[in-house]
Design a protein that fits this description.
By secondary structure, the protein is mainly alpha-helical. About 70% of the residues lie in helices and about 5% in strands. Bound molecules: zinc ion.
Length: about 300
Amino acid sequence: MYLLRCLVVSLGVFFLLYAAFSGLLAVCWRFIKKPANATVLFALRVLPMFAAGAVVLLFTMPSFLYLEPHAVEEEFGVSGLAMALCGAGIIVVGVVSMLVAWLRASRFVAACTANSRPLNTDVGVPAFEMSCAAPALLVSGVCRPRLLVSGQAAELLNSSEMEVAIQHEMAHVRRRDNLKKMVLRFCRFPFLSGLEREWLTAAEMAADDAAVTDERTALDLASALIKIARASGGMVAPELAMSLVPEKGACLSARIQRLLAWQRPVSARSPYLRKMAALAGLVAVAVVVNYSWVLGQMHEFTELLVR
Ligand SMILES: [Zn+2]
C-alpha cells in the first residue's frame, strides 16, 4: 500500500509538471526567435517530458520515501487520483504509440526487403533495391536501419547524384533521426506540432549539410531532390523513415535554394545550446546545495496534491 501511494503521488506530480511544462513551451514557442539547429529544436521538444520525469525521479519519489511515515494511511482525494490516472495514461499512450510506429516500420522494411535485391555498397548498413514503381530513397528502422532505393530512383539519378543522396540518408542514420522520431511519438502533446515540423526541416537540412562537401556535390544533391520530387508519388513511407524527399515536403524549395547557394559552413556552436547548458548547470548547483530543503518543499506540495 505504501509503494502504491508513492506511485500515485509520483504519477500525479508527473502529469502536473508535464502538462505545465508542455503548455509553457507551446506558449513560448509562439514568441521566441526560432532556432535553426536540429539538435536544439529536438532538445526543446523533448524537454517537458524529460524534465517532468527527472523531477519525479530526483525529488518526488525520494521526498515520499524519506519523509512520508509508513504507518500513516491517508486517503487520496478524487483530484489526486484523477491526476495519477492522467499521468499513467500519458505513459501508456506514449508507449503504445511508439510500439505501433515501430511495428509499422518493421513491417514496411520486411515487405520491401522480401521483394528486393541486396545492393553491394559499403555504406555501413544493409542496402536493398526495391521493385516499387515510385522513385524513392529512404532509411527505415530504428535499431537496425536499412537503406532502401527503388529501381526507379536508380534509373533517374546519375552516379554522382546517387552517391550524394545516399550520403544524405547515411547522415540520418548517424544522427539517429528515426530513433528521435520514435521518442517524439512518446512525447505527443497538442499545440507542439509546429515545433516538430521545424525540427524535421532542420534535420533534413542538417543531413544535406553532412552529405555535401563542395559546390559540385551541392549541385548534385539539388538535382537529385528536383528529379525525385518531380517524379514522386505512389509510395507512402512509414513514420519511422527518413526519405530523401519527404511527402510533406514543404521545406523542399528552401533546401534546394540552400544547396544552390552553398557555401562552406563555418563551424559555430549554437548560442542556444550554451545558454541551455549554462542554465541547467546553475539549476543543478542550486538544487544540490539545497537538496534537503527541496525534498521538504516537494513533500509539502505532494501532501496538498493528494488531498
Ligand atoms: Zn532526408
